[in-house]
Specification:
Layout: H1 3-19, H2 27-48, H3 52-62, H4 64-75
Helix pairs in contact: 1-2, 2-3
Length: 81
């Protein structure tokens, strides 16, 4: 297995462990995983091309709620609307 896919698998394991933490302890590792996902997707894309799409979908699946919240904040809407 290539280095990029090995790192992607380790990212998934780290994300699963982070998800098991209490919510108040998830912020720091969650942000670290979110920021690490961008270069990881690029790395997988460079080595495997189309397989980077799978990494992007995994990241979007893991962080769907925070990304929706961020999109709403950037659009100028409040949380409940």
């Amino acid at each position: 297995m290539s280095l990029s896919l090995t790192l992607a698998c380790l990212w998934v394991v780290a994300a699963a462990i982070t998800a098991m933490l209490p919510m108040r302890l998830q912020y720091a590792p969650g942000l670290t995983l979110l920021f690490a996902s961008v270069p990881l997707a690029v790395f997988v894309g460079v080595q495997h091309g189309w397989l980077a799409v799978a990494v992007v979908f995994a990241v979007l699946s893991m962080f769907r709620r925070p990304l929706i919240y961020l999109a709403r904040r950037l659009a100028g809407r409040k949380e409940g609307t």
